[in-house]
Amino acid sequence: PSVAMRIASQLSLDPLKQGVAEYESLLTKQNVIMNATGASGKRVKKVLNELNTYSDQTIYSFGNMTDAVQKFVNAGVPLGQSVTSIKGIANAAAFAGASSEEANRAMYAFSQSMSLGFIQLQDWNQIENANMGTIKFKNELLKAGVAAGTLTKRGNEFITKSGKAITATKGWRDGLQEQWATTDVLNTAIHHSRVIGKQ
Distance (Å, rounded) from C-alpha 167 to C-alpha 190? Predict the structure, then answer.
């Protein structure tokens, strides 16, 4: 009987405990986002509900998406833009055939870049490992770099501040070390290529 009671207790309480833990985690994230953005609780709740509905339609985790939003807003990206960016990344991951785990790694890499202020090579490696470092996305980043003034276009090449010539297929990794792919550049590229992998 005691074994049966223990099993019954676990069956009824474990999901409840998990639900409470998830709710507490969500409240903490909501508070962090409110503090970082100055947005009201109502506004943050609405945005997170929208993101939750979106995640239910995909294979990607709401928890990881809210973690990424938290990092984006802490890096100074407006709340609405952060959510749009996360959806763009998820769309790109879906188009690229990325698994949930790969998409989560990519979201983490993007959010790391956002908080650092530019894409660093190790974060780019994560993006490539998730099959999201496509030629199209690189070209979007290059165009966004020109628009932001961190790159200059010369013929078919893009020139960094130090004079390095890069393209989507030449000198890419060395070029990233120049820190031209800033948070603004990354956000613009994500928004312009809502489905990054689309050819």
Answer: 18
- How many Cβ atoms from other residues are within 10 Å of residue 121's Cβ? 11
Distance CA 133, CA 106 (A): 10
Q: What is the mean pLDDT of residues 12-22?
A: 55
Tokens of 97: 């055939």
Whether the Cβ atoms of residue 114 and residue 71 lie closer than 8 Å to each other: yes
* % pLDDT > 90, the chain: 25
d(CA 86, CA 64): 10
pTM of the model: 0.72
Rounded to whole angstroms, how far apart are CA atoms 44 and 31?
9
Phi, psi of 152 (to 5 degrees): -125, 135
| Structure tokens belonging to residue 43 | 């506004």
Helices (H), the chain: 2-37, 41-56, 62-74, 79-96, 100-116, 121-129, 135-148, 172-176, 183-192
Q: How many CA atoms lie within 13 A of 115 on its CB side?
A: 15
- Write the CA distances from 171 to 138, 145, 159, 178, 189, integer angstroms: 12, 15, 11, 11, 19
CA–CA distance, 150 with 134 (Å, rounded to integer)? 21
